[in-house]
């Protein structure tokens, strides 16, 4: 697992850690029951406080990505992964709906919105906002 964090980012460090672990889980780097690094070890590896790492682990546990066994460690939970992915997709689609409505209000045509989405899917849309 390779988590990259930025101490200069506006995003809190614990959220960056959560994002990195979620990404690793979604990309299949872990099997169900795999143990994550200890809070102290990950904090040392990332050069952050153990409290920051602990916060990330607690949040991930509340979301259902991991579970903790006292005295043993924190483990990946994949039994709910399909449900978590479905929830993630529903949240993303809701954001897309809201964004589409905002584009419509701003005067964008349907074909413009579709073209932007196709460009993003083809990794060609990054230059639109530079």
Write a brief structural summary.
The protein has 5 helices and 2 strands; from the N terminus they run αααββαα.
How does the helix and strand content classify structurally? mainly alpha
Q: Name the helicity range.
A: 55-70%
Give the N-terminus to C-terminus distance in angstroms: 31 Å
Stretches with pLDDT under 50, minimum 5 residues: none
**What's the total number of strands?**
2
Q: Any idea what the radius of gyration is?
A: 18 Å
Please work out how many helical segments DSSP would assign: 5
How many structural domains in the coordinates? Answer: 2
Report the sheet-strand fraction: 5-15%
What is the overall silhouette? elongated
Q: What's the architecture of the largest domain, going by CATH?
A: Orthogonal Bundle
Identify the CATH homologous superfamily of the largest domain: Winged helix-like DNA-binding domain superfamily/Winged helix DNA-binding domain
- What is the string of SSEs from the N terminus onward? HHHEEHH
Question: Within the CATH hierarchy, at the fold level, what is the topology of the largest domain?
Answer: Arc Repressor Mutant, subunit A
The main pleated sheet reads as: 2 strands, antiparallel
**Average pLDDT, all residues:** 89
What topology, given as strand order, has the largest sheet? 1-2
Reading off the top of the CATH hierarchy, the class of the largest domain is best stated as Mainly Alpha
């Amino acid at each position: 697992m390779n988590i990259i964090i930025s101490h200069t980012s506006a995003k809190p460090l614990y959220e960056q850690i959560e994002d990195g672990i979620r990404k690793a889980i979604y990309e299949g780097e872990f099997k169900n029951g795999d143990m994550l690094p200890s809070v102290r070890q990950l904090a040392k590896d990332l050069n952050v406080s153990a409290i920051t790492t602990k916060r990330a682990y607690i949040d991930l546990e509340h979301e259902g990505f991991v579970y903790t066994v006292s005295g043993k460690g924190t483990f990946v939970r994949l039994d709910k992964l399909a449900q978590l992915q479905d929830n993630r997709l529903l949240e993303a689609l809701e954001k897309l709906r809201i964004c589409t409505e905002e584009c419509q209000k701003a005067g964008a045509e349907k074909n413009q919105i579709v073209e932007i989405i196709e460009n993003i899917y083809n990794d060609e849309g990054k230059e639109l906002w530079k």
